Amino acid sequence: MANKQALNIVKMKKMKTEGVPLSMLTAYDYPSARLAEEAGIDLILVGDSLGNVVLGYDSTLPVTIDDMVYHTRSVTRAAQHTFILADMPFMTYHGSIDETLRGVRRLMQEGGAHAVKMEGGLEICSTVSALAAAGVPVMGHIGLTPQSVNMIGGYRIQGKDAKDAQRLMDEALALEAAGAFAILLELVTEEVAAAISKALSIPTIGIGAGRYCDGQVLVYHDLLRYTADYREKRFVKTYADIGSLIREGISQYVQEVKQRTFPEESHVFGADESVLESLYGAAVTKGAKS
Predict the structure, then answer these.
(1) What is the 3 state secondary structure string of 115-155?
(2) Is 59 annotated as a binding residue?
(3) What is the CATH architecture of 9-223?
């Protein structure tokens, strides 16, 4: 999409006002991001979920700032006309503001990200304020926060009772007041996500948060079932099963190599007779032709 122009945070807020939903997708490498941009995606998130779906970890906790910079750089090279966010990984924004700014600077200067995303509520509001004051667009992330999975007791739905619903509302309002330009709501009950979306003037992006957020995000590998051991998720819709196609394609390749049916004649390159003579000698070459 050569004529496509990347969104900015002013346009996103206008889209919320006009009721135009935002589409967001994770991507972690050049081909994935290039395909997402060509398909017309609004935002790309280089999520620390790459730890689970690309690097083979069982959580996002081992992902480092070096990992995020490396993958963000790949994505920004591919999708030069799309708004790109990068996750701040575990324990890179809970220390001093100087340490946080170093990480942000790397993601934006080295990685080329337009904005960063940070998990947490009231406890990160002062950091969000400092980053916003420094000119850094920050997307908040509340509800299920995978970096805190050991504290919240696993991957549990958030906002199932009145107390938890009020906590989420308070966190969302505080993040908006701190200067966040948008908030991601993960695994939040639909009613609570709808109430938060209505209360905020900034966009909400939902994943497993129902139908009434201002936008939706899915993980690239979930949307396309691009994995060897896919696990069904209630909040995910599969739009293409490329994992099965990849497995079938590789399996056929293996069989054809074993059966010597690949490569075929159409896949090989012939040499001039002079080359054959230099390799085998003129007599041998002529004898082979007779």
Answers:
(1) EEEEEECHHHHHHHHHHHHCCCCEEEEEECCHHHHHHHCCC
(2) no
(3) Alpha-Beta Barrel (3.20)
Annotated catalytic, 110?
no
Selecting among 38, 110, 186, 273, the annotated active-site residue is: 186
Model confidence over 82-111: pLDDT tens digits? 999 999 999 999 999 999 999 999 999 999
Q: List the beta bridge partners of residue 186.
A: 143, 207
- Residue 114 and residue 75: Cα distance in Å, rounded? 12
Q: What residue spans in the chain does CATH classification 3.20.20.60 cover?
A: 9-223
Angle, CA 46 vertex, CA 45 and CA 48 arms, to 5°: 115
Query: Does the annotation flag 42 for ligand binding?
Result: no
Any known ligand binding at 87? yes
Q: Is the pLDDT of residue 16 over 70?
A: yes
State how far the Cα of 264 lies from the Cα of 98, in Å rounded to an integer.
Answer: 60
Q: What is the pLDDT of residues 217-260, one digit of tens each?
A: 999 999 999 987 788 889 999 999 999 999 999 999 999 999 99
**60-80 per-position pLDDT tens digit:** 999 999 999 999 999 999 999
Identity of residue 117: K
Angstrom distance (rounded) from CA 47 to CA 91: 15
